[in-house]
């Protein structure tokens, strides 16, 4: 997990920015990080305030014009909604670093052979160092499950597949046919079933919603543990340690 994953708490003017120690606003350093995303074709996750999201890559950084251009395909679900929102939070990962920045002035530019999603170059971005928690990505039929009630529809019971899990939180797969959830909410009474022996109930803080490739048929809910009892923390860490050892033995 990361030291912070809450776009709503990042103040663009920096006046009351609680995360100033992670803020990068020097133009040269900021542009260098953006160009790393561009040159490496790093996936960038864009999320609008209404929860609409998509994954793209940064195509170009035009410092002179003060514009960014992202790869776009008019057939991508959610693209038009993102443009209409006119703003989004971008999240990308450079190895052990998470970059997060706000985008304004979204504009879809069409060309003869392709189109691009343009936005203003941000005045600042936030650079978060990833914590050293081992992250388990379950495989096979016995993947862990999270059972919960939809926060907006209490009568709707859900059993969501756990995409990955660490000592800091977990990621869940929300199918496309399930009503969307917005980042920033708390999801109470979530029952995690990691295996037959490891089960616990907790509250999850939904930090970000990320679009996944079309063949996955869902979105990724990035969550942090809001509160884990000491006993639960020990059980979770034991499960992670055992899973890690098994993976290492299988790779030998």
Structure characteristics:
single chain; 252 residues; alpha+beta; six-stranded antiparallel beta barrel; 3 helices; 15 strands; disordered N terminus
Mean pLDDT: 81
Structural class: alpha+beta
- Along the chain, the helix and strand elements come as EHEEEHEEEEEEEEEEEH
Largest sheet: 9 strands, antiparallel
Task: Describe the overall structure.
It is built from three helices and 15 strands. It is of the alpha+beta class. Mean pLDDT is 81; it is low at 1-15.
Summarize the structure.
The chain is α+β, with helices and mostly antiparallel strands and 252 residues long. It contains 3 helices and 15 strands.
SSE map:
Elements: E1 23-24, H1 27-39, E2 43-47, E3 53-62, E4 67-72, H2 79-85, E5 87-94, E6 97-104, E7 107-110, E8 115-120, E9 125-129, E10 145-150, E11 153-165, E12 169-175, E13 186-193, E14 199-211, E15 218-227, H3 230-251
Antiparallel strand pairs: 1-9, 2-3, 2-5, 3-4, 4-8, 5-6, 6-9, 7-8, 10-11, 10-13, 11-12, 12-15, 13-14, 14-15
């Amino acid at each position: 997990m990361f030291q912070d994953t809450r776009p709503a708490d990042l103040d663009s003017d920096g006046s009351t920015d609680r995360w100033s120690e992670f803020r990068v606003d020097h133009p040269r350093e900021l542009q260098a990080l953006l160009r790393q995303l561009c040159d490496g074709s790093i996936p960038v996750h864009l999320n609008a305030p209404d929860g609409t999201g998509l994954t793209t890559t940064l195509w170009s950084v035009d410092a002179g014009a003060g514009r960014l251009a992202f790869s776009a395909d008019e057939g991508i679900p959610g693209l038009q909604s993102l443009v209409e929102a006119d703003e989004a939070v971008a999240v990308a990962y450079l190895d052990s670093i998470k970059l997060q920045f706000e985008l304004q002035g979204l504009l879809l530019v069409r060309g003869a052979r392709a189109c691009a999603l343009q936005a203003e170059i941000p005045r600042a971005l936030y650079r978060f160092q990833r914590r050293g928690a081992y992250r388990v990505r379950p495989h096979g039929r016995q993947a862990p499950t999270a059972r919960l009630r939809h926060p907006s529809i209490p009568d709707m019971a859900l059993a969501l597949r756990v995409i990955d899990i660490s000592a800091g939180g977990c990621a869940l797969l929300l199918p496309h046919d399930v009503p969307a959830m917005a980042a920033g909410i708390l999801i109470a009474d979530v029952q995690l079933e990691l295996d037959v022996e490891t089960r616990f109930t907790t509250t999850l803080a939904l930090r970000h919603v990320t679009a996944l490739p079309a063949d996955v048929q869902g979105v990724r809910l990035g969550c942090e543990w809001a509160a884990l009892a000491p006993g639960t923390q020990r059980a979770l860490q034991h499960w992670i340690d055992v899973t890690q050892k098994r993976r290492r033995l299988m790779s030998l």
